[in-house]
Amino acid sequence: MLDHIQVDVQDFEACKSFYKEALRPLGYDIVYEVQGWVGFGVGANIDFCLYGSEQTIPGIHVAFRADSQAMVRAFYEAALKAGGKDNGPPGIREHYHPNYYGAFVIDPEGHNIEAVCHNPG
Hints:
Elements: E1 5-9, H1 12-23, E2 29-34, E3 37-41, E4 48-52, E5 61-65, H2 69-81, E6 85-86, E7 91-92, E8 101-106, E9 112-117
Parallel strand pairs: 1-4, 5-9
Antiparallel strand pairs: 2-3, 3-4, 6-8, 7-8, 8-9
Helix pairs in contact: 1-2
């Protein structure tokens, strides 16, 4: 079981703003912040972190679990509005499994971010 994931980013403020808006439909908010580091979570638990760094590794894929297909769609719309780029609109991805409903966006640093619901309908 994972405790948290940290992604290093060069434009910390732009990414913090992007994730704050994109993850809000999934129930995430900023849980803790110190200069150059921010932790997002649902409730008090930090699950996803950003760290401002000069050295980053683009191309990371992070998938956030959603409880419904509506949440996936809301994530996708919020992420695009916050400056993300489309990398696959909401829909069923049967090649993963029959109930895999996901949406993909590219964040301001080039990372592939996904929201996915595994529940049918």
